[in-house]
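Quick one: structure tokens for this chain, please?
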Amino acid sequence: MALGAEDLTRLLVEHMDPGAPPQDLHLCLAELAQANHHASSINDALELVEALVPKVQETLDSMRNAAIQSGTTWEIELFGSGGEWVRGASFDDPVLPADDRTARSRRAFVTHTKGSLRGLSHRDFEFACATVLRLLGCQDPRTTRHSNDGGIDFHGRLELKGRLDSPFPYGGLDDRARVWLIGQAKHYPTSNLGPAVVREMVGTAELARTGGALQEWPGLRLSPFDASLILIFTTGGFSIGAKALLERSGMLSMDGDQLATFLCDAGVGIRDSDNVFDSDMFHEDLVESAKRVADIRR
């Protein structure tokens, strides 16, 4: 079976560690081709993959750009003025600013973070979503009651004071502006959510806004003309139909990969001092802290 650029790219992603230092791309591809019995010698392998290198470079660039657009992590990346080198996306490059180096280091733990998210109970995932709102800057993020919640699992209020580009030193409109973040938590790590979940959330948000809901949500005081962002967070994924409906509705979402990347970027469960993922620390920061706040509020 002929070796193609797609096969080589897949082998490269599987082979390289996220923290791998820069390696010559052409030579790395040749070694993979030889190791997988597509060539009997390294010289034959170098000749075999030479014509495939540009396509591999193009694919790696596309994968990185797609990950940036979607808010997820890419595993490896090109390096060098002509992309002639390849390295792990979490490689500690001393030339980069300190904040960049920390962010790259943290993203090496995306797999650990995603696994810990999947291990949460349904209720704990709702508390985790409230913590995500806190990390986004929301005031008083809350979970709703576990059963008969009326379709809203968590909510929070984002104050816009100081966040708008106002030139006035003593405040103005931004002092009174706020945005409500209202969402559902769907803990189905092995499933894709369908369009029905999105349609349900559209109806729930409209009832909450107009006062037509039978339930009340303590702390949520949504007026008809309040600005709001409607969210769906899941530990799994979204079907093609659900993604299309999310796009058309203007609703925001995060799947398991996006949530894991966000939490890594926030450093949840990561000890930067010794570059270790601590699962107990992760659970404490993500879930238990939100539970304690909820207990105090009661």
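The chain has eleven helices and twelve strands.
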